[in-house]
# Entry
Amino acid sequence: MDSEKGKTLVLLTTDHGMSPTDPKNTTYLNLDFPELIPMLDSSQNGHPLVPAGGCRDFFLHLKEDKLQDAISLLQEPLAEKAEVHKVHDLLEAGFFGHSVSENLRSRVGNLVILPYYGESVWWYEKNRFEQNMLGHHGGLTREEMEIPLLALCL
# Structure
């Protein structure tokens, strides 16, 4: 029996980390920044193309001629809560990998809001889009990017 000892390795890991979120502290873009709504691209039936992503990585599909206006609108008021980036800049910096498909490029939107640890930014529609989670993932914080790896040799 002792000769079998050490022949089994158990590895335990996750695919991502988490950030705590407080639903009561969520910034809802359409409620806090209603002037953003007409800047958004819309679907064939006229509804704004939101939300996309999650409350820790909120992607916006803005009319191209309104992209800079949206950045100006959001960047300063969200400065203590989140980073606001052009998706193009993150694509060029390799945040989505070095080989990004045209399918992703066509669907990802052109602006992303990446909340800081413990923060969340989302879209509100009663019983449809509400942030009610006490933890979430998707952002670029250390806690979400680094994952545990436990190893046990039996």
